[in-house]
Amino acid sequence: MLFGRFARSVVLAPMILLVACGGGGGGGGSAAAPTTFPIAAAMRAKLTNGMQVPIVLDGRVFNLKVQGESTLFFGRAGAATFNGQAGMSSETNLSVNVTIESYGSSLGLYSDTAYYDSNYNLLGSLSQSTIDGNGPSNSVVTAYHPLPESARVNDSGAFYEAITYAMQSQTTVKHNDVATYLVKADSANSVLLELTTKFYGLDDSLMETRIESYRVTGSGAISFVSLQISEISGNFTNISAK
């Protein structure tokens, strides 16, 4: 999932102490850099507040270069029901005119609605895309592991597992999804939260990898950084914040 599947990452810089010297003594110092980051609260804030991000897109499909610019919309969560369970949903949308090498331009569309229970635990998603070629799909989470409320650099672990079906029938399985998280170095006051989802075919072979990255500060502010989609076929798409 993107943001559902969607639904769906920090060696901290050394703390520098400034010690004043001279005449009568006294001193001062800079604020200590945070050592833990509220990644779960930051992701909840993203759902509560929504987000609009100017982006650039580039990639290669069937050995043809593609590129474009647009705005990525993360909608605010609202009341919804998924598979009979009450909760909330948040829709992510992207509409972009993609220039394809040797072929001119084409409109690329992506829409993903991620569903959560009242505790912000991911339940599944419905998605439609002409960008990655996956077509309409319905992902149902089978195991969910909440992100930690407080995380440090190099923390990592399981995020969720899901089954993705064609359309909404939940009868034809397209692939199985395994998502993990990783907290990586960024700056003295922020980390990069990487959410990696791997799609496996029915024969358990890896089909695709998606890496969704967010910057999270010590105070819990969150911003979108990038989404990387890599297929075993060699096709790839990179979506990055401007």
Question: How would you describe this protein?
Answer:
This protein is mostly beta strands and 242 residues long. The protein contains two helices and 13 strands. A hairpin with a 2-residue loop joins strand 3 and strand 4. The N terminus is likely disordered.
**Helical element count?**
2
**Residue windows where pLDDT falls under 50 for at least 5 positions:** 1-27
Label the structural class.
mainly beta
Q: How would a crystallographer describe the biggest sheet?
A: 12 strands, antiparallel, barrel
- What share of the residues lie within helices? under 10%
Strands of the widest sheet, in order across it, are 1-2-4-5-6-7-8-9-10-11-12-13
Please sum up the structure shown:
The protein has about 240 residues and is mainly β. The protein is built from 2 helices and 13 strands; from the N terminus they run ααβββββββββββββ.
